[in-house]
Amino acid sequence: MYHLTWIDSTIENGNDALNSPAEYDRWAALYTAKRRVIACATVIEEMLGWLPVDVEHEVLDFGLHLRPEKLREALQAKIDESSASADVLLLGYGLCSMAIVGLQARNAHLVIPRVDDCIAIFLGSCAAYKEQARKEPGTYYLTKGWIEAGDTPFEEHLQLVEKYGEARARRMTSLILKNYRRLAFINTGQYDIERFREYAQTTAKSFDLNFEEIDGSPALVQKMVNGPWDDEFMVVAPGETVTYADFATPKS
After folding, report:
1. 229: closest CA among 109, 134, 78, 136?
2. Which residues contact 243 (CB under 8 A, 6 or more apart)?
3. In angstroms, how far apart are the furthest CA atoms of the chain?
4. Given a cut of 70, is residue 101 above it in pLDDT?
5. Residue ranges per structural domain of the chain
6. Which residues are within 8 A (CB) of 222 and not within 5 positions of it... i.e. 6 or more apart?
7. How many CB atoms lie within 10 A of CB 41?
8. How far apart are CA 51 and CA 211, in angstroms?
9. Tell me, what's the pLDDT at 191?
10. Most buried one in 48, 53, 80, 180, CB count within 10 A?
11. CB atoms < 10 A from the CB of 157, how many?
């Protein structure tokens, strides 16, 4: 595991830790290598507008998040398959309930944002996500992709109504949402969002949640696609395995 910030600091300090121009050239080669994106259906929508025409992408079903072990298996299969046609694989995933832990880089480098989940990707950084968490810890986030995927307590509520009736379903959903006070709709500016905004506003009102629209940012997506892959990312070399510690502590 290595990171561009370490290389930058050694250059600034006149350190010989790079040993030779070869180490620096390795980074230059990675930034110009053939890349391929593997992302979930909600994240790829935020990436498509920034992908160069020569960067292909693979999309995995959002429903795999419900079973992290299945998501890990599907990701590893795509990594192994895509390594035959790309030297650098950009993963549009965060830690995602530990699904990323255990993935192996075999014949290609993996570039993974060091985030817990895709909310930080949509907001542009972990710092932005933490700021929202400080502002209101009890926040349920929605984006266009999540609304379209339908995998939310609000859509599940409709199924509960059909099975148990409105009154009982309302009590059950209220228990699920008991720790939430705000519904935040993330506007990433990547598409026409009016009907998704209306859905979020109506949903918040229906479940007695405070509605707020917050601005997203493409900053993390742009860095993932074009670099620099600094401490906000992990770069996993062929032969290495992703560990939980990699998400917390950059290695030099």
Report:
1. 109
2. 101
3. 70
4. yes
5. 4-118+218-247, 126-215
6. 50
7. 17
8. 32
9. 75
10. 180
11. 20
The model's confidence at residue 250, banded by pLDDT at 50, 70 and 90, is low
Q: Is 184 exposed, middle or buried (0-12, 13-18, 19+ CB in 10 A)?
A: buried
Provide the token pair at 68.
């992290």
Give the pair of three-digit tokens for residue 193. Answer: 């969002």
What are 219's two structure tokens?
Answer: 């900053």
What the block records as the tokens of 217 is 């940012």
**CA 186/CA 83 separation, integer angstroms:** 33
Quote the tokens at residue 163: 């099975």
Q: What is the pLDDT of residues 13-51, one digit of tens each?
A: 433 433 445 555 677 788 888 999 999 888 888 888 889
Distance CA 118, CA 109 (A): 21
Q: Which residue has the tokens 């696609």?
A: 225
Give the whole-angstrom CA distance, residue 124 versus residue 172: 34
Instruction: Give the pair of three-digit tokens for residue 88.
Output: 């650098």
The SS3 call for residue 162 is helix
Report how far apart, in Å, the C-alpha atoms of 42 and of each of 48, 61, 143, 236 are. Answer: 11, 9, 8, 24
Identity of the residue numbered 178? K
